[in-house]
Amino acid sequence: MVRLGYDLLMIQAADHEHHGAGTATIRDLVLGMADGLTVPFALAAGVTGAIAASKIVLTAGLAEIVAGAISMGLGGYLAARSEAAHYAKEYAREVRETQEIPNEEKAEVAQILYRYGVREPVLGRVVNEIASDREQWVDFMMRNELGLEKPDDRAAPRSAALVGGGYVLGGIFPLAPYALFANAHEALWWSIVFTSVALLAFGYVRARVLATPVVLGALSTLAIGAIAAGAAYGLARLVSPGAG
One digit per residue, pLDDT tens: the chain, 244 residues? Predict the structure, then answer.
């Protein structure tokens, strides 16, 4: 029975870690696809406002997708590396504190366990059990005091691939019509249809994942894309009023 409180917390932490990995995957995909749907769409609409040839719009859009995917993927990679560096820094600090101020650290363990309903005489025995193994002790503090999970060593390249891949996937929808229609203005209408459907579906899925109102989530995502594309198209027409 001595390890009961600790084992319960470790089960809860493991469950949190499992969901945390899934959340990170969804976050990276959402981040990549959100920009992949809106930025190329706005660019294509803006270029269409000044140029009537779909080939030029498609070329500009593909160049933007490549650059955007690399930039977004690199951003995801650096963010994951920063998270790993932060974890390592906090881990080293916790190791140092368990060595230099062990009584204070044990008191913090007791406070955490108390919040989970562990009481004396079991409380003191569980605290001593946790503190008997420094690695176990530090791991407990990282999870339950700081709320930090050890990052996966593959998190950075995976994040880069998910964010960059999501960007490319999102960018296919607004640009596909420009590969099918020679006239950019005709392609634009189909791009609006393709991207609107994709934005609605994307907003719906994101809202379901985040447990927010699905209708509001779908419409708000569509509105963001429409505003971005409308602003880009209007600016291009303003700068080149005689185009098309």
Answer: 344 444 544 444 454 444 445 566 777 777 777 777 778 887 887 787 777 788 888 888 888 888 888 888 888 788 878 888 888 888 888 888 878 887 888 888 888 878 777 777 777 787 887 777 788 888 888 887 777 777 777 777 888 888 888 888 888 888 898 888 888 888 888 888 888 888 888 777 777 766 677 777 777 777 776 776 677 667 666 765 554 5
> Does the bond joining 121 to the residue before it have cis omega, within 30 degrees of 0?
yes
Q: Cα angle at 236 between 51 and 174, to 5 degrees?
A: 70
**Contact at 8 Å (CB) between 178 and 57?**
yes
Q: What is the pTM of this model?
A: 0.65
Distance CA 90, CA 103 (A): 19
The helix, strand and coil proportions of the chain, stated in percent and rounded to the nearest 5, come to 85, 0, 15
Is the separation of the CB atoms in 139 and 148 below 8 Å?
Answer: no
Task: Answer for the pair 15, 155: CB distance below 8 angstroms, yes or no.
Answer: no
As a whole number of angstroms, the distance between CA 244 and CA 240 comes to 9
CA distance 109 to 131: 9
Total number of residues shown for the chain:
244
Q: Which has the closest alpha carbon to 165: 39, 58, 75, 32?
A: 32
Closest CA to 157 of 211, 79, 219, 223: 79
